[in-house]
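A student in our group prepared the protein record below, which I am reviewing. I have pasted the whole thing underneath without changing anything:
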Amino acid sequence: MMMRANGWLPAVAAVAGTLIAGAAHADTASAKIAVDAAKAQGLVGEQADGFLGLVTGSADAAVKAAVAEINAGRAQVYAQAAAKNGVTPEAAGAAAFNSVISAKLKPGEFYKPNGGGWVRK
């Protein structure tokens, strides 16, 4: 079933609001510190699906574990926001990237738009 634009836009906005409130809970302090350092080194970036990714395709075990931990937390937040707002978890993740995550990207950090390769901000 396809939703009309005027039906899903308010839902996406509500998802974004939920994600702003829940995002801090998804990231543990030590994992966030590790990921922030890896972002500054150009090893990790933000993807249009709302999840972190490895820019170079490889990183040490600690960085991979931190990325996995944060992504698992984000997946829970997206699933909760999706259930609350009647959208898919994928739509919630994309909404988070478009309205929250992309706005927080710092100069020099990497992001990966839909269908594209890694781009440095």
